[in-house]
Structure formats: structure tokens, C-alpha cells
TrEMBL record:
Source species, domain of life: Bacteria
Protein name stated in the entry: Cytidylate kinase
Protein species of origin: Bacteroides oleiciplenus YIT 12058
Entry-linked SUPFAM superfamilies: P-loop containing nucleoside triphosphate hydrolases
InterPro entries in alphabetical order: P-loop_NTPase
Amino acid sequence: MNKKFVVNIGRQLGSGGKEIGEKLAARLGIDFYDKELITLASKESGLCREFFEKADERASQGIIGGLFGMRFPFVGDGALPTQNCLSNDALFKVQSDVIRQLADEKSCLFVGRCADYILRDYPNCVNIFISASHSARVTRLCAALSISEEEAENMMNKEDKKRSEYYNYYSYKTWGAAATYHLCIDSSVLGIEKTIDFIEEFVKLKIK
């Protein structure tokens, strides 16, 4: 595959989406972006990384709450600005610009952050959603984080709600719905490695 292309992955917490994305990107020989986008957006805008971490995959709530519910300076500015406020929408715009810039430069794989919607006009995109059975997700989180099943379930419910609200708000589509993606796959059916095999073949066929 000599031409530029992008793979966008949406995922349920505990589905192995990040691991699948990392390994798939390595196999395809393209760059992988997940939390790295926060660092890049911070550098691009001159804003502190903490702003983007606070807003990461969260739908707009006006001005960022808590300690962030005020006006902030750009890094290096000597005084607080009097006009512009940092909303989740403003930070989403910065991160969107970074995603578009990366997609213009090279082939890459993005995890989350509405990348499939942001790059909706790009011709060579493959949009994938990775889910897993409830039990598989709980087992994976318990093993990875050394937490109880109850804690894992609470974490799953909270994170799924946050991700769906974020995606639905910015994309006007439905997070996890089959019609939103080119491929939806349950990683607990084939296991992580065979799921990667399946997606890799799908990507190559679609790009061709």
C-alpha cells in the first residue's frame, strides 16, 4: 500500500482496542496516535497539557469545570487574557487540526477522539469499532489494573458513557452503531491476535 491512508479505531473500555491499534499500526508500518495527540495538541497550541487531559474525550460543557473554570494564559504569556475562554469545544478544534495535519502528512492510525468524523472527507480512511463481551472486558480490566469486578464494571459504565457522549456530541453520529463504521468487531470472539489478523486483511482490501 503505497498511497497514504488512515485507520480510525473507536473502542469500548476493556475491549483491547488500544493494544489492537498499536499492534495493527506496527504491522502496517504506520504511526500510532492515542494519548500522543494530547502532547501534540499542547505543543501546537502552546497550551498546557493539563487542559487537554481535562477535556480528553469529553463532550462540551461550556467552560472547563473545576480548577479549569476560568480564563487561562498561553504558555509564556505574562498575563491572563481578558477575552478568550478555553472551552472543551476550543480544545477539540485544536486537536482536530492536529489530526488533520498528521493525516495530510502520512499514513497513520488514530484511536478515539472522533478521528473518523474529523477525517470524514478523506478518501482513504478505514473506520473500525472494537467491542467485547461484558465478561471479557471485566476480566481484562481486573487483570490489567488489579481491581475488583465491581470496580471494573463501574469503570466500564463511566467510560462508555463519557466516550459515547463525546462522540455523539461532536460527530452527530452514534458511538458504536454499525452504520457509523466500516467494520464493527467483537475482539472476544477471535481473541486479540486473530482480531488483528482480521482487521489487517480488511484494511488492505478496503484501501486497495
